[in-house]
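Structure, all two chains, one model.
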Amino acid sequence: MHTSLYLKEIFNFERSLFRADRLDFFVALILVAAVGYAFVNGQSWINKQQQAVHAAQTEESVRLQELKDKLARIDAGGLAPAKAFENPVNAYWVGNRHAASYAVLPPTAFAATAIGQSDLNPPYVKVSSDNKESFALNEEIENPGNLLIGNFDLAFVVVFLLPLLIIALSYNVLSAEHEQGTLAVTMTNPVPLWVLIAGKLGFRAALVFSLTAGMTVICLLAIGTDLSTMDSLVRLGWWMLLLLAYILFWLTLAAAVNVLAKSSAQNALMLTGLWIVILLVLPSFISIAVNVAYPVPSRVAMVGQIRAAQTDANQESDATVARFEQEHPEMTAKPLAKADDVAAIRKRVLVQQAAAGRISQIMAGYDRQLARQQRVVDSLRFLSPAIVMQEALNAVAGTDNSRYRHLSEQVDAFHREWQAFFLPKVLENTPLTLEDYQHFPRFVYAGPAVSETNMRLLSGLLGLVVPIAVLYLFSLRRIRDYPITA
Amino acid sequence: MLQASELTKAYNGVVALNKLNLTVNSGEIFCLLGANGAGKTTTINLFLNFVTPTAGRALVNGIDVSAEPLEVKRHIAYIPETVMLYPSLSGLENLNYFTTLALGHKRPEHELLKLLAEAGLAKEAAFKRVSGYSKGMRQKVGIAIAMAKNAKALLLDEPTSGLDPQAANEFSKLLDRLKADGVAILMATHDLFLAKQVGTRVGIMQRGILVSTMTTDDLGHADLERIYLDIASCTDAGGAPPRTGEAEQRTEQLPSAMQGAVAGQKEAR
């Protein structure tokens, strides 16, 4: 009999055993409930975020339209120019306050599957012509209790709960056969022991994978995900591959523990211990190790340094203005509003620009330290398949750190573009026109290159496949010495 | 069909089976008698490749068990002392699974039911969960599993343990039929009467050594039960099994009734 036929027979027999004990029903019940609830949670999180984004964008749109209307009435002579602060032609106040624009990170089609870093990073940033610190340090405050507990999303179900289910189904996959004596009856037939364990674990893999993957697809469709786009299909493909690899990792781990020929109780203890190590101890250890080696830079210290830089720039403001007027005699005040307002605004912008260089250096140093820490975390994540899986699922969902770094880089570029549009007009004291309003810079998020995301996901997949291969080889080696009889 | 050549098994230096030389031909039933720990089950486990020999070889149909364990398992069937089955499935489902693993293809249900009936299991019981079976009923399914394989050699380890007298009698008849069909049967048993009834030859083991082999004709003249009890009492008094190399010397401590038999075996080597 060919090995594949044995595998098929053992696979089918396992299905009969599960049916007889109604195990398949209970597994399905658990997975349907867990995946369904996770999707409800994930989608409600996305809805909450998107409601905030929608409100912000609506507010921006209304605000901009009011400015345009006001300007049109002024141009038509129906409305007298207001104070500088309210004047829609004033490039400083418009660029710095009234027309400040939201840079929005759109959710991916799979955003509901992993909340990831989205509870720490807001999905939008209000960009103005002010310095970067005016928006870069603004973050939404999330309930610290929620951050501590974590979110019950699909990634949580897969990374944390699925291994427990797999352990419950496979901790005694061989030891029970040994203990109840059926192994001896089976092994009098020309079936290699590895085929027996592969068939039994293969059925468990198929059961858990098909139920989790099937329920996920149903939930994705239920929340209105368009799975016909190439982007969605690629994400779905990666998600399925990662899920399969993660399930296989835990099953090969169960196999490796089973071939040690301990009792079922010992196997359960060992696997539970390994679950704790892989999911709790190792991530904590990595976090502590990284924080000791590369401590998180102090935001308080950074803010203090920024304020000191602003104070220095303020103290040097007279000299800065004098140097500017000397270098740009052509830029004299035009009768925009009161001359004092123009001088004050120009002074403010010049001081702002003088401080910007020092502040950007401070913030760049902070970012470099964070990036260094992140690089170390990226390397150490391979110590725990659970971290690898969580990171990979975040990447599929578009809620990983790298996507927020991309957002940050693009917001920086947009900020520079925004300043380049408004600040020359401020310094030249050039009034804004309706034509200018049509050409305000707009932010359009461009995600990381597909190849970059794919490479990251591929490294995650390899981070699961390598331990699977090691555990497989270990099991294959140890299984030769497995005692068939007591 | 079954052949042991200098077959030895030691566990951590403790000899469980010492240089066993044995041949069981087709159409022959060889009964291994001996006290607990004498090496009977070790012998069977070696033929099944459940354990690997420390020295020597076990051959089934001329094939070395250690070299080609899977090929060997195509030729042998096994009934343990207690046949353990999957309790949540019926006897028929258990038989179907093990038969498919043995043969590489499924046998029709009516054939399986016929096998179970031959083994003595009622048809209505065949469809019930094994969890409700008595030990004897499980044993009958085990017999059906072994019969379904149509093996050339049959290894039995206390096969009638747990069977009621009628079932045991039917089992004896079944063994006679298999013998007539040319199956080589090696049976480890404590059941002296069964051995007398069905055995072609009987071997007595003590501390890992086959100390005596007799034909059924010899059995008629010897007081098998007395000899066996002598050996048992010797084992009980003897303490730990011998370490490698000690076994030859220890045979000298055998009861006087067995000395000749041991000498005969040494000559045969």
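Chain B touches chain A at residues 41, 45, 48, 50-51, 70-71, 73-74, 76-78, 80, 82-89, 93, 97-98, 100-105, 129, 142, 145, 149 (CB under 8 Å).
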